[in-house]
Amino acid sequence: MIDIGRSKRATTVYGFDDIAIVPTRRTRTPDDVNLAWTIDALTFDFPIMAAPMDSVMSPATAIAFGRMGGLGVLNLEGLWTRYDDPVPVLEDLARIDDPIKATKKMQAVYASPVRGDLVEARLHEIRDAGVPVAGSLSPQRAREFESIVSKAGVDFFVIRGTTVSAEHVSEQEEPVNLKKFIYDLDVPVIVGGCATYQAALHLMRTGAAGVLVGFGGGATEKTRNVLGVEVPMASAIADVAAARRDYLDESGGRYVHVIADGALGRSGDIAKAIACGADAAMVSTPLARAKEAPGKGWHWGPEAWHPTLPRGERARFEQVGTLAEVMFGPSVTPDGTMNLVGALKKSLATCGYTEVKEFQRVEVVVHN
């Protein structure tokens, strides 16, 4: 703890740029590394989820990501569930460079209502392709579309917001009781974001299969600028990992997965997230660089189109390669934005580990 003046104390916290992974005396061959990630009844080839953002996930890219061995999550409050064909809308957005005009345009196009028939149709489209199905809703809309999502046969129900708590208090509306909501569902739920030990412990007690750590992507959100709210990711993940350990004892052996969700712009950030205790990472920014990305090089999160208080703006990225090249290479960029899976394997191998769970024990240091 440090003093801020005479009346306030604060904890020293760290982001990914503040820490580094320390190699051990042993190294491995990257081909010996096993990145398989099992959550609930499903096993994926690598511990990377594709974030539910309209700029990176469409039904087509979710299917492609699933066929690669990962889990793509579709935003069920996005353009794909508001329009029969959102491609012209996305093309119109891509032609706007001015940030103020872009925000106004996004507020206008996202004002169209979410349609239950499209929610069902998009999820069935992914299911019919034979890949795992995951859809994301905000806590405010989860109860409204819960029956449609459940009947569509999703493998994971993702409840995702900037900050999600197990105990939301309101005098104006009846909040969602997450514990009852999750208990009544027949599918595993991944919920977040959160950034503290206590908040994560409360979310784990709701029965969630996984907890998202973070605020959903530092490159496209400005929650810190607008609300003053932020917890650097290295510290946040380490705190939530501690909550996972304590909940494991408290529950008699129930393991809740910790999923990093934010500030994951490069492959090294994914490795650091796991080194701090994450089981998996939910990425968005690297995928926005793929040629198949619906945003056509532009990237934005759900907070960017809030009707009264937008907390982010679109970011522009060069499209560097196909989605397969972003995930598996070969990389043509030296900055960690391509071949995410290969880089994670190399990181584990460099430090002498062959399993993701073991890599959570790797030593890290803090830069002065």
Please explain how this structure is put together.
There is one protein chain. The chain is of the alpha/beta class and 368 residues long. The protein has one domain (16-366): Aldolase class I (TIM Barrel), CATH 3.20.20.70. 35% of the residues lie in helices and 15% in strands. It contains 14 helices and 16 strands. It has helices at residues 59-68, 87-94, 99-109, 116-128, 139-151, 178-184, 197-204, 223-227, 233-250, 267-275, 285-288, 323-328, 340-350, 356-359, and strands at residues 2-4, 8-10, 19-21, 37-39, 42-44, 48-50, 71-75, 134-137, 156-160, 189-194, 210-213, 257-260, 280-283, 298-299, 315-316, 364-366. The strands form 5 sheets. The chain has an 8-stranded parallel barrel, surrounded by 5 helices. The protein has a two-stranded antiparallel sheet with strand order 1-2. Helix 5 (139-151) links the parallel strand 8 (134-137) and strand 9. The protein starts with a strand and ends with a strand. 49% of the residues are buried.
State the total count of DSSP E strands: 16
From the 3D coordinates, which CATH architecture would you assign? Alpha-Beta Barrel
Tell me the β content: 15-25%
- List the helices and strands in order: EEEEEEHEHHHEHEHEHEHHEHEHEEHHHE
